[in-house]
Amino acid sequence: MGRAPCCDKANVKKGPWSPEEDSKLKEYIEKQGTGGNWIALPQKAGLKRCGKSCRLRWLNYLRPNIKHGEFSDEEDRIICSLFASIGSRWSIIAAQLPGRTDNDIKNYWNTKLKKKLMGMHMAPPSHHHHHHQRNSLKPPPFPSSSHHNYQNQPLIPSQPLSSLFKDLSSTYNRSFSSGFEIPHLSMTSNNFSNSTTNSSLFPTQECLVGSMQYNNYPVKKNSNQNNLLMFGSEGSCSTSSDGSCNQISYDRESNIKQEEMVFQSFDQDQNNQPMMLNYGNNNSGCSTGSAGHDHHHVINQWCERPDGFDHLGAENTLGYCDLEDVKQLISGGNNLNISVNGSKSNSLFSNVDENKTEEKVMYFY
DNA sequence: AAGAGCGGCAACCGCGCTACC
DNA sequence: CGGTAGCGCGGTTGCCGCTCT
């Protein structure tokens, strides 16, 4: 039994939007707002479009402060860093780049950035089949929600992440040895009614990934009392648990997405302690430092800190990871060594709930 | 000059999640 | 508590312009 269509497909227009449709939609939303119901919106606005189509058009093209055009080197770097860390979570990546949409970034990655990175190390395909080889550089398997899983991807390492960053480094004539960025994803919590989060309220734990020790990232437990892998803003070094969060909120004015994420449920470890994975570095620890860069404005709107520092607090605000550490992570069969709460594990996902995934080892493609 | 191939991007599609009834 | 509507996301497709042969 299939799902009922969201609209009457026979009576909706498809294809490119005309300027008239654009102005109708823009005008309606600017005056009336979305009303929290995209399905009903096109009829109210006098558009023969599917609600989903309207939403997409608004979010990707019509809403204020949308940035089109060339991506800066800094934006490239952020995209690459986050992609290397969390994979194709475009909406999350987009949240780090004000004015950019997930669709924009996705397209940019698929058509340009990926090739830029691959250019020096991978021979171009002999035959180009449009749209069919774009995913040849696969993201790292990400302990995703059930929404998207990577467990069915073939375990065939083809592109060491280290070389990927080597490419990037040479491309931009800079070294990533002190600037490899770790995902930095701010959160809000259901426990807080407003949008601003004091990130220090989130519990964190220490964790070793390869030679890197990470201890800045908060962890939360979901309502099922499973343990969650979360990337997040800096926090205290304490441990606690609270409710779940898993929603995207929007800046009231710009509709720019703000993220709060629950990524993956983990089993408890052998000591019956909550398991988590933090990203950080031996040297960075819970350090603080200079203020953030422009691309963190979105985050900073939501994760204010009284000291004025950004979330990871250092010059590179997303965290640090020495390139050698990255290489180390990639080497040895692309197998990450993880230590959680002092107990070593030889793969990132060895503690993943086996009912949810069969994949035990993190590979980079 | 023409057609095939390629690249870029807007838009569509299907599905998971969640709030609501 | 199950069913359903709506939302949001990532993957995919279609179209169009440019380049190459």
Task: Give an account of the 3D structure.
The protein is 27% helix and 7% strand. With 365 residues, the protein is α+β, with helices and mostly antiparallel strands. Helix 7 runs antiparallel to helix 9 (323-334). The chain is elongated. The protein binds a DNA duplex (21 and 21 nucleotides) through residues 3-4, 6, 14-17, 36-39, 50-53, 55-57, 59-61, 88-91, 102-104, 106-108, 110-112, 127-128, 130-131, 134-135, 145-148, 246-248, 257.
- Level of helix content? 25-40%
Strand order of the largest sheet: 2-1-7-8
Which second-level CATH architecture of the domain at 12-62 applies?
Orthogonal Bundle
Largest sheet: 4 strands, antiparallel
Distance between the termini: 36 Å
Number of discrete helical segments: 9
The oligomeric state is: single chain
What best-fitting shape do the alpha-carbon axes yield?
A: elongated
Could you say which structural class the secondary elements and strand pairing correspond to?
alpha+beta
CATH superfamily of the domain at 12-62: Homeodomain-like
Query: What is the CATH class name of the domain at 12-62?
Result: Mainly Alpha
Which residues form runs of ≥5 with pLDDT under 50?
120-365
Pfam families: Myb_DNA-binding
Keywords: Activator, Developmental protein, DNA-binding, Nucleus, Repeat, Transcription, Transcription regulation
Subcellular location: Nucleus
GO molecular function: DNA binding
